[in-house]
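User: I'm writing a tutorial on reading structure tokens. Could you give me a worked example: one chain, its sequence, then its tokens, then a sentence or two explaining what the tokens reveal?
Assistant: Sure. Here is the example chain.
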Amino acid sequence: MVDKARKKELLRAYAERKPQTGVFAVKCASTGESWVGWSKSLDKRQNGLWFELRMGKSPEAGILAAWKAHGEDALSYEILEVVEEDDPFALQRKLDERTQHWRAELGAGVVSSR
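And here are its predicted structure tokens:
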């Protein structure tokens, strides 16, 4: 069992960690469809997407249709690439470039980026 001091240290480290920025895909195993977007917080983006889909109010029409037709188990969230850049303008340019690359590579649709 983890003692209180170690638990506190682990919680602090978790809270202080920098979110991963990069490109992700949502894939439907039943149809082979995929959708690609970018996020400045890759780990939180999946939670947000899945919450919207469960509520049936996702702005992502293609993903929502796949969710309704094939169910949650048919969809997966995959981090395609982590992008690291200190300059915010260069980061945005790089995210846009890498997102376009992955959409072309996978023949994917669009997921709104956040």
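What the tokens reveal: The mean pLDDT is 91. The radius of gyration is 17 Å.
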